[in-house]
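thread: overnight batch results

M.L. [08:02]
morning all. the overnight job finished for the chain we discussed friday. pasting input first so we're all looking at the same thing
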Amino acid sequence: MFKQKSPRWHTIYSIISTIVEEAAIVVFVLWVLPLFGIDVPLWGLMTILVGFAIYSYIMYLVGHPTISYKEVGAPESIIGSEGVIESELKPEGYIKVRGELWKASAGGERLGKGEEVVVTGIEGLKLSVKRKIAGKS
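M.L. [08:03]
and the structure it wrote out:
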C-alpha cells in the first residue's frame, strides 16, 4: 500500500505552484505580448494576477477535501453496522450508516423512512440491509 502524504503537502504545493504560475503570467504579459505589439497596462496585469489568485484559491478549496479524505481500508467492515433509512426502501432507497449516505436494498421488503436497519452485505456501492429487531444490537 502507498504511504499517504500529509494534507500539508497539498497546501505547500498549491502555494508554490501559484507563485510560479503568477510569475509566468507576469513574464508572458511583460515580455512576450509586447513582441506581438500587445501592451497590457499595469492595472490590467494586476487584474489578471488577482483574478488568477482567486481562481487558484477556489481550486485549492475544491481539491483539498479530496486530498485529506481518509481512505477506507475494508468496505466490508460496514457489515453489521446499524443505520437509519433516509428514503423509503421500495425495494431500493438510501440509508445513513456511520454518518454517510448509502444506496441500499432490503431484498424486496418495503421499509419506511426513519426505521432502523442492520447492514447484512455489500455489493459494489450498494448495501443489503434488514430491519433491526428491537432489543438487539
